[in-house]
Amino acid sequence: MELSIIRPPKLVVALDIGSTYSGYAWQNMVEFKDRREINFNTIWKAGAVQLHKTKTCLMIKYKDKYYASGRPMDKSSLHLDPDEIEDVRIGNFAENTYMKIAKKESHKLLGKYYLFSRFKMRLYEEKFHDKMMVEDQLSQPLPLFDVMTLFIGELKKHCLQKIKGKRQTTIDEKETLFVVTVPAIWSESAKEFMRKAAIAVRII
User: Fold this and answer.
1) Domain of 194, in residue numbers
2) Cα-Cα-Cα-Cα dihedral of 164, 11, 160, 154, to 10°?
3) Global confidence as pTM
4) What pLDDT, in 10s, does the model give residues 132-173?
5) Which of 11, 91, 113, 161 has CA 20 to 30 A from 101's CA?
6) Which residues on neighbouring strands pair with residue 12, listed in sequence order?
7) Torsion angle, CA of 50/52/57/61, rounded to 10 degrees?
8) How far apart, in whole angstroms, are the C-alpha atoms of residue 136 and residue 115?
9) CA distances, 47 to each of 50, 101, 158 (Å)
10) Rounded (to 5) percent helix, strand, coil in the chain
11) Where among 143, 166, 186 does a domain terminate?
């Protein structure tokens, strides 16, 4: 959706997916014309060292019926099926939730809960390819593309909910330009990977 070419967007949202911390910022056209400050989110469901960012963490909780049947061990068949997922959390909130469960019900973690962190670092690897897997805290693998797509989608959702709450109005995504930051030093395949992930969550 090349809004910048077709017409000026009414709202611009920047999603910054960092290796350790992630966050977002936004500004509408009126604020831009009036040269007002850019808006940042400083309130997350759990504390963050950097107030305008939260940890680049993703927690996935599978529904009991899929957990009970066990996850497939053949890496080639592993994928994220939205119908199997019960809950998804990101940032410090994801990490804190996982740690509480680990303390009280650690026997339920394997197969039911996945916690991914620093998964973006795989895109810096010299032999990066879009079929790469990434392992969670318990070495449980899932496709990096699925993990990244889910994280971006949840960050986008968090951002839109925050803006709606402040503006007390609905947001027309067709009038919104989303920007996802990408390091210039990345390979072309890594940049294309992020573009595909953005398309998958309807950012581009």
Assistant:
1) 3-53+152-200
2) 180
3) 0.86
4) 999 999 999 999 999 999 999 999 999 999 988 876 677 888
5) 161
6) 27, 177
7) 130
8) 5
9) 9, 18, 15
10) 40, 25, 35
11) 143
